[in-house]
Amino acid sequence: MNRIRSLVLPIAVTLTAGALSALAAGTAQAADVNVARNGGFESGLANWSCTGGTGASVSSPVHSGSGALKATPAGQDNARCSQTVTVKPNSTYTLSTQVQGSYVYLGATGTGTQDVSTWTPGSGGGWQKLSTTFSTGPGTTQVTVYTHGWYGQPAYFVDEFSVFGPDGGGGTDPGPSVPGAPAGTAVSGQSANALTLSWNAVGSATGYYVYQDGVRVGTVTGGAASTRITGLAASTSYSFQVSAYNAAGEGPKSAPVTGTTTGTDPGPGPGPAVPKHALTGYWQNFNNGATVQRISDVSAQYDIIAVSFADATGTPGAITFNLDSAGLGGYTVAQFKADIAAKKAAGKSVILSIGGEKGTISVGDSASANNLANSAYALMQEYGFTGIDIDLENGLNPTYMTQALRSLSSKAGSSLVITMAPQTIDMQSTQGGYFRTALNIKDILTVVNMQYYNSGSMNGCDGKVYSQGSVDFLTALACIQLEGGLDPSQVGIGVPASPSGAGSGYVSPTIVNNALDCLTRGTNCGSFKPSKTYPGLRGAMTWSTNWDAKAGSAWSNSVGPKVHGLP
Length: 567
What we know:
β25, α4 (398-412) and β26 form a beta-alpha-beta unit. The chain has helices at 17-24, 333-345, 366-383, 398-412, 433-440, 471-483, 509-521, 545-550, 554-564; strands at 33-34, 49-50, 55-58, 68-71, 81-86, 92-100, 104-109, 116-120, 128-135, 142-148, 156-165, 186-188, 195-198, 207-212, 215-220, 226-229, 237-246, 249-253, 257-260, 278-284, 304-308, 311-312, 319-320, 349-356, 387-392, 417-420, 447-451, 458-459, 465-466, 491-496, 539-543. By secondary structure, the chain is an alpha+beta fold.
């Protein structure tokens, strides 16, 4: 999806031959330091200046720690936030930060050489790393570094701002020390298969490790001081500990606390049937500038609501779910469960999406396949989800994903909803991992809603190349799936609800509706017209219900009736 989730690349330190020679000769060089101050915004906006009062320090969303910058463009003000750093002449510095939002810029001015900048068209629902380098001139001792958004765009967020290079003598943020042990560890919310573990936050922590019976089973980040532990056995006692960590390392574990699950849980019961033609929408379990919603706020036009996203655990393949109560205005787990139950009573399917651009779940062997099936089923029992969505954007293993989904189906029964959201490249050939998985589980698969956005040009089923943003791109690529073995009822068209919902590839609801007409009725086609019609086409999908609401529900109010009126 476009939740563009950041692709964090490991930083490799390479010594050139010259550097090796210098070391061999005994020449010592000082290590690079971060010359930016308060780059994590843990001290509010200290050391920062934002134009027109457009900046504020917030506690959510954060990439790490407990603070981040939120800056909101207004009118002709692009919400530029900057600070002046002290640098060393004739030196090279690496400028980087984590950002979230649309059209976010990072740059440096006054370098004495070539000023630099970089930007992203959009990070959707997740954090994205921006990075660039600059060199200072022979007389340069100070450089202004900055970030800003763009006119008419919503607020953007910044965290972990750094300028690494030689120490210019202006001072740096003091390095962290290993955090202490969390206090106040407690267990609550016991059910047959899960419980909630909470603790008091440690101020210097960037995250926490969770231990179950002495084995590390999870990592908690983003400022949270609690987690839901799922996949447990009924009527069983477990011992838990928590440790805090930061850049200096992991601190000591908390005192152990025991939690006991309740008796056998009968589960939520079968879910409602998905209608012949269905509208799918992804619901954001985070605040990224789109309208914050509760499940009860989602438009009744949506037949399948995909909750985004499940979280990885320390166990390969296993997932959990943590409701972002703070980011969603105090939305409680009890309210969330009640809203899911109400949607199901209204005939809607509420499923849990696994992956997204930042997803780290990997299923590469039988053990991890079993872990996925077991943990997903436990979450279905705990929250009332009626199925899962596979949105693994780093690829998947068709053998073991098939095993996991069939195992889950054997547990959940015939009412299980399984959807998939591959990228366009994943469905160009029936030999691809996603396509193979879809065909492997064709008898239990609900729908594949391919993402027709954030894509380069792709081949259509006629062998011609089509560019995103047109009715031909939607119809010619859908034809590959329709002629490649999937039933028309298992094919949907996935698009952003508004231009803010994706980095590229937005099309108007009119184009979506024309594509639906073309595929089902043979009318309103572009230059590509399929050789036959597919009246059983399942429908359409959007990222996201939140961006749809932000745009006045224009997408669902137009595409919803079209989908529900298909032949």
